[in-house]
Amino acid sequence: MKKIILTLVMSYFVVFSLAQEGVTFQVEELSKPEKALDVKAYEEIYEELILKDYELRKWDVKDRKLKVQYDILAKSNAPDSLVSFGYHSFFNGMYTAYADHRPFVLSPDMMWLLISQGFARHIHSNPEKYRKYFVDFKGKTSLVVLSETDLLHETNPTRWEDVLNKFDSQMAKHTGKEIVDLLTANFSTTGITEKVASQINIMKAMEPYFEFVVLYIACGIPEITLQGTTEDWKKVLDKAQKLKKYDLAWWIDEIEPLLKEFINASEGKVNKKFWRNMFKYHTKKQYGASNVIDGWIVKFFPYDKDGKRNNLKSLNGTSSLPEEMVKVDVKYIQTGNGQTTETMLELWSGFVGLKQDPKTFALTPQISWMVRKKDVNNSFLLQKIKSDNDSYKIQLRVDEVPEILKELKEINKLDLYFNKRVSIPEWLKNIPIKELSIYGDISQQEKEKILKWFDASTIISINRESYKNGKPIDGIRIVP
């Protein structure tokens, strides 16, 4: 039987660039990829990410004739076309490089963004526990930045760069400069896009303690390339070590040895065994399960998408990975001429896709940021739900039942998949529902309450057990 070895391929020699110091090194000699990966337009990638938040694809919109307002106000500069893997372009891009023998490019900014995203999720896991490290007040304090131009009609990204610098300064007045400076990207590879992306991530980390307000007053893997210098990589290690005091030693201790290998490689001391194990351990005679990833890259993802700690040893596929984009709410207030209007915005930052070298097919993760109007009234979600209700059934994965369902006079079929413990609000029993299916961890008390609320007109399924009028269908009851 023919065996296929999936490995990272690296170059045969070390290369130093005059424009920006870096090192390229060989890990293994493997066949070159046969063709380039498909690419998408930069704008289209963000549109698809927005649709993904509604569990939709482009063809869904066209087929169901949905009207979508993407409301993208501004975004960072990036190549016109990128390889895209949705919300996991860094991780799945690296995996594709590993599987297809494609060179891969890493920079201090990329690895630091992964670390700082992990830090933000750590703070969000228990914000009150860590409040004492950053602020001396309860609740949230509003940080207000004055804008000289109307940002709702301004596509120039430099205007937002100025706004984010001001938010940084205001946060530092409360948290101290140390944490703001620590989390801000400041390497030789850092451009304005990478810096802004890191600033938005700081806002995400501090979101439990601050409300961000903008006020406009109208007066009318075959080859790994490490970008940056050895000093840059030492700085990544130093910055990471300074995060330990935020109850993060359990994570930073795990990635310290990895970051030291980055330093060694930047000095030309390449540990090929280490770089071969970026993804699951392998030799030419040993193969792992294709759906288990246990290489060292998993250590850079300390939390899963539900905010639970990963074991830092392996991942069962990528379904539990957190998104590589963070989103921060910003309140935009426009006042003047006796009128004041409020518009809720979202700042996005993270990995949007991968640049692809047309000759070597090397993949380079692309850091990006974007600003859009937030759909606070869930108008598009309501449009989707009504379309689902008319065509077949409504399927929602939720922490809690969205109140937008109140807008429906009746529901044909409703499937609710709970990320947390099942909790059905009392108002839902007032909406006629033909079939209600509930999935998730549920208490006996909650189950009995639900069965009492809905009469014989509703067929209820709870974790695949069916009931009608409070009794099991066909007389079958499975006690949990």
Could you give the topology of this structure?
Blueprint lengths: L21 E5 L13 E2 H11 L5 H7 L7 E4 L5 E2 L6 H12 L3 E3 L1 H18 L1 H8 L6 E7 L9 H19 L1 H7 L8 H15 L3 E8 L5 E5 L2 H12 L7 H18 L5 H5 L15 E2 L21 E2 L8 E12 L2 E18 L6 E11 L5 H13 L2 E5 L12 E8 L14 E7 L4 H10 L5 E4 L2 E4 L2 E2 L8
Parallel strand pairs: 5-8, 6-7, 7-11, 14-15, 15-16, 16-17
Antiparallel strand pairs: 1-8, 2-4, 3-13, 9-10, 11-12, 12-13, 17-18, 18-19
Pfam families: DUF4419 (PF14388)
Protein name: DUF4419 domain-containing protein
InterPro entries: DUF4419 (IPR025533)
Describe the protein in words.
The protein has helices spanning 42-52, 58-64, 89-100, 108-125, 127-134, 157-175, 177-183, 192-206, 230-241, 249-266, 272-276, 379-391, 444-453, and strands at residues 22-26, 40-41, 72-75, 81-82, 104-106, 141-147, 210-217, 223-227, 292-293, 315-316, 325-336, 339-356, 363-373, 394-398, 411-418, 433-439, 459-462, 465-468, 471-472. It is of the alpha/beta class and 480 residues long. It folds into 2 domains: 1-376, no CATH class; 379-475. Strand 12 and strand 13 form a beta hairpin. It is globular, with a radius of gyration of 25 Å. The two termini are 46 Å apart. The relative contact order is 0.14. Residues 1-20, 281-290 and 476-480 have low confidence and may be disordered. Pfam families: DUF4419. InterPro entries: DUF4419.
